[in-house]
Design goal:
Strands 1, 2, 5, 6, 7, 8, 9, 10, 11 and 12 form a 10-stranded mixed β-sheet that branches. The chain is built from 14 helices and 12 strands. The chain folds into 2 domains: 362 residues, TIM Barrel; 38 residues. With 402 residues, it is an alpha/beta fold. Helix 9 links the parallel strand 5 and strand 6. 41% of the residues lie in helices and 12% in strands. The mean pLDDT is 95. The chain is globular, with a radius of gyration of 22 Å. Helix 12 runs parallel beside helix 13. The chain binds zinc ion.
Length: 402
């Protein structure tokens, strides 16, 4: 039998359905009558979209081990669940809730997955080439990577003081100028080599960087960001998706640097299994996840732009737009103009339903003009549309208000 035909049964009992819907509805309208606006079948469909029935039941994954846009049967280009609820509320004359701070009509969460801290540092390149050599298929490829590793080892004996990427303050300054802040999801290398996957990142906290022209380590950089009021979250390593011990280990290693508890996470590569990852995250003390988005497209994986309760104790805030998905050749392959149009289209949709647009730009794309210009365009649009700037802590607060 074809593996994709092996159906696991998605269990949606009345209690589970009520739990996810009552909280989700309450964020959109203060009325107690929302349930009565839908048929029993519709209520199950809404809950199944939020709790990701379709990805639970499909065993097949893409070549990176992920469920992505090409597997959905829903119209992921629009917030299809939010639109249905908002339409019914409006038709029935019920009131919408002013959910976001300062009566703003919609919200945004700016996030950055910290995957890469340098592009030319020979110490990091040596580590990268050694990893590629150990994962290479075939002797020739292994030898090539080994020789690049040796070349960088030799380079590392000379002083190295400039890396094109050592200017991440540009992200901070752009956001600060607009009066915004953001969350950096920081990768933390697993402590055991066997837990490091070939897709994982290559830096360690002791690696060097520069921040505002001054020499520092990655750890110093993260601590400084936190001190400047930017939120630090965990970027869980590729193999941590079902392993709370590994996640906790990674979370604690960053908490030691910032001397604060981490509440938010996005998995590296969006490597997430709806049947297992939520429990692993809760057991590691994570309160907010923002992994449910697409690697190769933009849009609404769960049909919503609102935070919602994925399981008891874990708030899901779906990632809506990721940089690479707009531009990569295996993704939407847009140019700058098309990216601006798509961003505008999605902003219009989220603004109309009053949700939260969660945006992920990787700091290491700083020097690619189309990426940087699109981020600047997003900041400009969010400013002129007067949206509320959120982070995980502020989302938790809004979520738990009555
Ligand atoms: Zn990543």
């Amino acid at each position: 039998m074809d593996e994709s035909m092996t159906m696991k049964k998605f269990d949606l009992d009345e209690k589970k359905r009520h739990a996810v819907l009552s909280k989700y509805f309450s964020l959109i309208s203060p009325s107690n009558n929302i349930f009565s606006l839908f048929s029993d079948e519709e209520l199950s469909w809404i809950a199944s979209s939020l709790l990701r029935k379709e990805e639970f039941e499909l065993d097949h994954r893409d070549e990176w081990g992920n469920w992505d846009f090409n597997f959905t049967h829903e119209n992921y280009k629009v917030p299809y669940v939010d639109e249905l609820i908002v339409q019914r509320i409006s038709e029935s004359g019920l009131r919408k809730r002013n959910l976001w701070p300062n009566d703003k009509s919609f919200a945004f969460w700016l996030t950055h997955d910290l995957d890469v801290v340098s592009s030319e540092d020979p110490v990091v390149l040596n580590r990268l080439q050694n990893k590629l050599a150990s994962n290479a298929s075939g002797k020739n490829k292994r030898l090539i990577h080994k020789s690049f590793a040796t070349y960088n080892k030799l380079r590392s004996w000379k002083s190295f003081d400039e890396d094109p990427l050592w200017a991440y303050e540009r992200w901070i300054d752009l956001e600060k100028e607009a009066g915004f802040d953001s969350t950096f999801f920081v990768f933390s290398r697993p402590s055991l080599m066997k837990d490091l996957h070939q897709y994982d990142c290559d830096f360690i906290f002791e690696d060097r960087m520069k921040y505002r022209g001054k020499n520092c380590t990655v750890a110093d950089f993260i601590e400084q960001l936190s001190m400047e009021g930017f939120e630090i979250g965990l970027h869980g390593s590729y193999l941590s998706w079902d392993n709370s011990t590994m996640l906790l280990d990674q979370k604690v290693s960053i908490e030691k640097i910032i001397k604060k508890l981490i509440v938010a996470l996005r998995q590296h590569f969006l490597h997430f299994d709806i049947g297992k990852t939520p429990d692993a995250l809760i057991n590691a003390g994570i309160k907010v996840d923002s992994t449910l988005g697409f690697n190769r497209s933009v849009g609404f994986r769960a049909g919503t732009s609102f935070p919602y309760s994925l399981v008891d104790g874990l708030i899901e805030v779906p990632q809506i737009i990721m940089d690479g998905a707009l531009f990569n050749h295996n993704s939407l392959n847009y140019n700058e103009k098309l990216a601006f149009l798509e961003v505008e289209r999605i902003l219009d949709k989220v603004e109309k339903v009053g949700g939260c647009i969660t945006i992920n730009f990787h700091p290491n794309y700083l020097l690619i003009p189309s990426y940087w210009n699109t981020y600047k365009f997003i900041i400009k649009e969010l400013t002129s549309r007067n949206a509320a700037c959120m982070n995980a802590e502020r989302i938790i607060k809004v979520f738990n208000e009555d």
